[in-house]
Write a structure and sequence with these properties.
The protein has a domain at about 465-725: Alpha/Beta hydrolase fold, catalytic domain (Rossmann fold, 3-Layer(aba) Sandwich). It starts with a helix and ends with a helix. Helix 7 packs across helix 8 (about 595-605). The chain is globular and about 75 Å long. It is an alpha+beta fold. The chain is about 15% helix and about 35% strand. The strands form ten sheets. It has an eight-stranded mixed beta sheet with strand order 37-38-40-39-41-42-43-44, with helices on both faces. Strands 13, 14, 15, 18 and 19 form a five-stranded antiparallel beta sheet that branches. Strands 20, 21, 22, 23 and 24 form a five-stranded antiparallel beta sheet that branches.
Length: about 725
């Protein structure tokens, strides 16, 4: 009898444990089942009335663009139903949409076909909301379809030429006709501008719709890069213009096109053609275009005002730096037509400034030892500017408002963590994406005082899913390097971590100039894969070393002219710090990274073989002379000017130092960091008679994705880690 009760007790205990046992993460969870999907608010658009927003809803096979009331969240009018408005007998699938300025039309984009990182072809449709009619803009896919501010015309790029369609007549006018592949581009960026200056659409309507300013790239003199693609019996060669470090760039013209006279003038950019035009932006004066002009060294930036009628220009602002000047979209013109707001790290930290070009007066609106991140927008009614900054700590982003004279600063988002803000016209409310290191994002509508009005998405399902898995603990750390510098870091410890035991450590980093991997936001890169490794008994550690962002100019620009030197020194120093921790197995420390991070993990293993047992490098740069000139020369100048800086820190030149286990991974169709980098590093390793592992992914680009690719890639890396660490 006692024996029976004992068996029953054991059985009950086993059932209880089975019911409470948590799951282990699998690669299928990550790359097939989408178990840890993070929800957002697709198609969010705030309406001009300040009381309504729209978003894209899915109901079965339907896609609906519907209005919602800000105050109550109550669903309102369905503006578009893709099933009710078929084109050529079929419902279109909406990938993106936008409103005309008067909100009478919807511009719908479908059939997205990505070209490079930021450029994509789409089928474009124009929907008249009141009439309920829809029409196709072109039978072909086009780039950058954009309505004019007066809602009378629509511009787009096709076949390297710029076109304007009249909404009234439907007639299409070819603004340019000389566009030709690998020679002339109108209205769209060349490869290197898109990648390194962060934009693809290279035209802009004037505020009144009377002019359109556009770029003309003459890339005839840029060297051609040939990339084989393996799809059939014979490889097909994809050819495009890619200027490597020290090589010629496209020659740029900025054209100012009068839509009434159908004529264009050239903006006067000066006699120098070996220069950059990283931005154009219309001022509040519809006849005056602001043009950014930057020298090849990228240490001098000038803002020019161009007359739309004549093309004549005048310089209204100049900034110079001993290393380089940053370029971004943080520029906002004020309604006085004599000043603008912009950001600069001219005083050692990135701050918000007001420049009055008539009075020649510069005002620092946000002094202090912290960096701002983005200008969210200028509220002309309240005469304030909204911006985000890492004021309290480099790890956070909060939203602030301040008057144009630098007074009355207010903190609008008070909760710690990262607030990514989407502005809404009128500035009565904003969309706030808020997350913490261990808390998935919550999307809320907040008013201009920071009060939460409604929660649109709280990712409750993801939070509940995470509760079902045996996740490790993630926490922030600070590490002091061998030179006394303190670095911000995060660490994931295995579930049921025991500080009296010793664990292997896998370090992850990116390390590129101005980047940040350690921040109070969710998710960090590869969070759930790192958690899977933690479940297998690994500590995952990430630290932002010298050169990373939001710690001031000196910290970020210390790596100038010698990319890889200080960054790798720091990671090696941090690895030595970890080796001395009582819970770390000092003989089992590895490192991995992707792109710049792959360049770094290679360098760290080759330089730090006494501390690193293994490394994985995904799509790494193996020598900066193989990379594009805008990015590389910004930090390194040209190979001719700085040969030692290039060779002293190149993994290709350090291959003979390899002692640990090394896995080199690359996609053969990587248009960004060419497969050439892996080939040249492989050649150097073979010449040095070094054993290593390699994996290449046919026809895959820099992101190495599509189909089963990611599953295979991460299985390969997981197996390598488990076998060698």
């Amino acid at each position: 009898m006692k024996y029976t009760w004992l068996l029953l007790a054991v059985f009950i205990c086993q059932v209880s444990l089975a019911q409470t046992a948590k799951k282990q993460i699998t690669l299928d969870d990550l790359f097939k089942n989408n178990t840890f999907r993070i929800k957002s608010v697709p198609g969010f658009n705030g309406m001009k009335d300040g009381k309504t927003y729209t978003k894209l809803d899915a109901e079965g096979n339907k896609q609906l663009i519907r209005t919602y009331d800000v105050a109550s969240g109550k669903a309102g009018t369905i503006l578009f139903d893709n099933q009710a408005h078929p084109v050529d007998g079929k419902a279109i699938t909406i990938d993106d949409y936008s409103f005309s300025k008067d909100e009478k039309f919807l511009l719908l984009k479908s059939g997205t076909e990505h070209i490079y990182r930021r450029s994509a072809l789409n089928y474009v449709y124009l929907y008249d909301i009141a009439a309920g009619t829809i029409r196709k803009v072109s039978n072909d896919k086009v780039l950058h379809a954009t309505l004019s501010p007066d809602n009378k015309q629509l511009a787009y790029v096709k076949g390297n030429n710029l076109y304007i369609m009249s909404l009234e007549s439907g007639n299409v006018n070819a603004v340019t006709t000389d566009g030709e592949w690998n020679k002339i581009i109108n209205g769209n960026c060349d490869w290197v501008y898109e990648e390194e200056f962060g934009f693809s659409q290279a035209f802009s309507w004037s505020p009144d719709g009377k002019y359109i300013a556009y770029y003309r790239f003459d890339e005839s003199g840029v060297p051609l890069f040939i990339m084989p693609r393996y799809f059939g019996l014979y490889p097909d060669n994809y050819t495009y213009k890619y200027p490597k470090a020290g090589e010629p760039n496209s020659i740029i013209q900025i054209k100012l096109y009068d839509t009434k006279t159908k004529t264009a003038v050239n903006a006067d950019l000066g006699t120098e053609t070996d220069q950059y035009i990283p931005r154009i932006k219309w001022t509040n004066d519809p006849s005056q275009l602001c043009i950014y002009r930057m020298n090849r060294l990228q240490n001098k930036l000038e803002l020019l005002f161009a007359d739309a009628l004549t093309g004549a220009t005048q310089v209204v602002y100049t900034e110079e730096n001993k290393s380089y000047v940053e370029v971004n979209d943080n520029l906002a013109f004020l309604p006085d037509n004599s000043s603008f707001l912009f950001d600069s790290d001219r005083d050692g930290y990135n701050h918000l400034y007001r420049w009055d070009w008539k009075k020649k007066k510069l005002t620092d609106l946000t002094p202090g030892k912290f960096d701002i991140a983005d200008i969210i927008g200028v509220d002309e009614k309240r005469k304030v500017v909204y911006y985000t900054a890492a004021e309290k700590t480099p790890l956070e982003r909060k939203m602030y408002s301040i008057s144009w004279d630098g007074k009355g600063k207010k903190t609008l988002t008070r909760t710690d963590g990262t607030h990514a803000i989407t502005k809404v016209e009128g500035y009565n409310y904003f969309l706030d994406k808020h997350s913490r290191l261990d808390q998935p994002p919550v999307f809320s509508l907040i008013d201009n005082k920071g009060k939460i009005l409604r929660t649109l998405e709280d990712n409750k399902e993801l939070k509940e899913t995470m509760q079902q898995y045996e996740l490790g603990t993630i926490s922030f750390k600070q590490v002091t390097g061998e030179d006394g510098t303190t670095f911000n870091a995060w660490m994931i410890t295995p579930p049921n971590f025991d500080a009296n035991k010793k664990y292997p450590v896998l370090m992850y980093q990116y390390s590129g100039p101005g980047s940040q991997e350690v921040a109070d936001r969710f998710p960090i890169r590869d969070f759930f894969w790192h958690q899977m490794l933690a479940e297998k008994g690994y500590i995952i550690f990430c630290a932002d070393g010298t050169g990373t962002g939001f710690r001031g100019e000196a910290f970020k620009k210390k790596t100038y002219l010698q990319l890889g030197k200080y960054e790798s020194d720091d990671q090696i120093s941090i690895a030595r710090y970890l080796a001395n921790q009582p819970y770390v197995d000092k003989n089992r420390i590895g490192i991995w990274g992707w792109s710049y991070g792959g360049f770094m993990s290679s360098t760290c293993l080759f330089k730090g073989s006494d501390v690193f047992k293994m490394a994985i490098a995904v799509a790494p740069v193996s020598n900066w002379k193989y990379y594009d000139n805008i990015y590389t020369e910004r930090y390194m100048r040209t190979p001719k000017e700085n040969p030692q800086g290039y060779d002293d820190n190149a993994p290709e030149k350090m291959a003979a130092n390899l002692k640990g286990k090394f896995l080199l991974i690359h996609g053969t169709a990587d248009d960004n960091v060419h497969f050439q980098n892996a080939v040249m590093l492989t050649d150097a390793l073979i010449k040095a008679n070094k054993d290593f592992d390699g994996e290449y992914y046919p026809n895959k680009a820099h992101g190495i994705s599509g189909g089963n690719t990611r599953h295979h890639l991460y299985k390969r890396m997981t197996d390598f880690i488990q076998s060698n660490l």
